[in-house]
UniProtKB/TrEMBL annotation:
<dbReference type="InterPro" id="IPR040131">
    <property type="entry name" value="MnmG_N"/>
</dbReference>
<feature type="binding site">
    <location>
        <begin position="15"/>
        <end position="20"/>
    </location>
    <ligand>
        <name>FAD</name>
    </ligand>
</feature>
<keyword id="KW-0521">NADP</keyword>
<dbReference type="InterPro" id="IPR004417">
    <property type="entry name" value="TrmFO"/>
</dbReference>
<protein>
    <recommendedName>
        <fullName>Methylenetetrahydrofolate--tRNA-(uracil-5-)-methyltransferase TrmFO</fullName>
        <ecNumber>2.1.1.74</ecNumber>
    </recommendedName>
</protein>
<keyword id="KW-0285">Flavoprotein</keyword>
<keyword id="KW-0489">Methyltransferase</keyword>
<dbReference type="GO" id="GO:0030488">
    <property type="term" value="P:tRNA methylation"/>
</dbReference>
<keyword id="KW-0274">FAD</keyword>
<dbReference type="Pfam" id="PF01134">
    <property type="entry name" value="GIDA"/>
</dbReference>
<comment type="function">
    <text>NAD-binding protein involved in the addition of a carboxymethylaminomethyl (cmnm) group at the wobble position (U34) of certain tRNAs, forming tRNA-cmnm(5)s(2)U34.</text>
</comment>
<dbReference type="GO" id="GO:0005829">
    <property type="term" value="C:cytosol"/>
</dbReference>
<dbReference type="GO" id="GO:0047151">
    <property type="term" value="F:tRNA (uracil(54)-C5)-methyltransferase activity, 5,10-methylenetetrahydrofolate-dependent"/>
</dbReference>
<feature type="domain" description="MnmG N-terminal">
    <location>
        <begin position="11"/>
        <end position="380"/>
    </location>
</feature>
<keyword id="KW-0819">tRNA processing</keyword>
<dbReference type="InterPro" id="IPR020595">
    <property type="entry name" value="MnmG-rel_CS"/>
</dbReference>
<comment type="similarity">
    <text>Belongs to the MnmG family. TrmFO subfamily.</text>
</comment>
Amino acid sequence: MDYIRAMTEKLHIVGGGMAGSEAAWQAAEKGVHVVLHEMRPKVKTFAHRTEMFGEMVCSNSFRSDDDEQNAVGLLHWEMRAADSLIMTSANTHRLPAGGALAVDRDPFAETITQKLKSHPNVEVSYEEVTELPDQGQWIFATGPLTSEALGAAIQKETGADRLAFFDAIAPIVYAESIDMSVAWMQSRYDKGETEEERKAYLNCPMTKDQYEAFIDALLAADKTEFHDGETAGYFDGCLPIEVMAERGRETLRHGPMKPVGLTNPHKPEEKAYAVVQLRRDNALGTLFNIVGFQTKMKYGAQTAVFKMIPGLEDAFFARLGGIHRNTFLNSPTLLDDQMRLKSKPNIRFAGQVTGVEGYVESASMGLLAGRMAAAEILGAELPVVPQDSAHGALIHHITGGAEAKTFQPMNVNFGLFRPVDGLKGGRRGRKDRYKAYTDRAKSVWSEWLSGQ
């Protein structure tokens, strides 16, 4: 009977981004027939360039790949163990990035699109979904750029105003336009196992006078204005560079422009006052992303201000920065522990719209939603996601662990993990504590997977 149900009941997934693609893959691999609804290219967004699934619209980095000392690296490990489509494609198209996992964005998305379109259990519909259906099994993974029509339907159903913050995109520079007599290649602290990884970042040094002039220009530059009724509730993990500068003139020097762990081979005896880092953005090495330089400056101001950076005086920009509104649910009040909408339990939400932040976190919530929906359709008993795993820490946070009144998007971090008994706190005990978190998480996650 369950087999017949699986063959006849379809799982509808709305959104072909990281979360929707991963959810579709996980459910299809379990034998469930999936209909993946993607409104592009018929309905476009300002941030997307293509109609491919899994398109990276901001950075090309999945951040740290360290699965013993970093929470996002642990999330990578857990996703790989669960046969994640996103991580498989990222591994195939990874670029040198020191200890981080960066990918060649277009081949990455092409692989995801090809694998989903060729899967026998996946069909694709290029129509916009604007309502929350009363029947059938649905996962909405529409991300931070949820369309106005669908957003209005969500608002009507939940009875609450949509929450929003503003997310800014960093600019991309053509490598050939960078002055390498000023800049040099080096990962901070020479991190990486290969020579290529140890030279994964391009560095532009600043003297104190150059830094001060840069800050002055940044603060004085023309910025994008907000529309009536909008408020600038930024996510702290993705602040526009000028907003960081407004918090104090030294903020950037202790953030994305920190000069530590680097030695300028052009002037080895001279310590830079600040350093701007650029990360390779494609496999050819022709494009570089300015790390941490998300911005809401107007285009003309961007080119003027960024060309003040030593080594970028003659830079050509493949893409300038931008700002957009991100939509997310107050998930602790609206979703149950299966990521279902409490008022419409035939509907699940996944990805950034649930209040997680980041490519990997979004995909991981898609992974869980896909498996949960598949189990429900198949009539199978899915074990409770272990809270001590990275996936479990995230889903626990968004479905009840967070304070609803102050709920904001969250990256995965060890602050979401339950303490390990017998380990001391503080900075000195951090290395042992993080290793204990990751060891425990790998054990419970492996056990969870083997029980399915």
